[in-house]
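Priority: medium. Attachment 1 of 2:
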């Protein structure tokens, strides 16, 4: 993963939260640990778009989080992540722990757990994919 992407995300989080970049550790969850509101994640993504000259879609991030799992494989009838859904997230999040991916976790709670490093890992493929499976988002 390019250090530039991590730095851009750290700076975007710092600007959004009105704090110094040094106060944004890689392993801190932007919402749960740093106190951002979930709407502020949208602002972070907008700032990343502006800094890197790309367009990012929230749906793309959701698709990456869900992996190749169908909706019914990712979320059960109660609206909570299935075992397969939690395993998928554990395979792509940079700091997965049993506590973070507890039974009963709902998909709408996942964004609160994303760290700067998680965001960088999720966004990096969207910034560089040119294999024809999706348009390259780099302008």
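Attachment 2 of 2:
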């Amino acid at each position: 993963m390019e250090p530039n992407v991590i730095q851009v995300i750290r700076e975007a989080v710092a600007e959004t939260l009105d704090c110094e970049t040094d106060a944004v550790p890689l392993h801190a969850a932007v919402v749960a640990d740093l106190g951002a509101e979930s709407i502020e994640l949208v602002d972070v993504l907008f700032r990343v778009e502006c800094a890197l000259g790309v367009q990012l879609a929230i749906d793309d991030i959701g698709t990456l989080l869900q992996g190749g799992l169908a909706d019914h494989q990712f979320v059960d009838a109660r609206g909570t992540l299935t075992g397969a859904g939690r395993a998928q997230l554990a395979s792509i999040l940079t700091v997965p722990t049993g506590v973070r991916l507890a039974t009963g976790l709902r998909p709408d709670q996942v964004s609160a757990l994303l760290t700067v490093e998680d965001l960088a890992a999720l966004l990096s493929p969207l910034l560089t994919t040119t294999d024809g499976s999706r348009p390259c988002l780099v302008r």
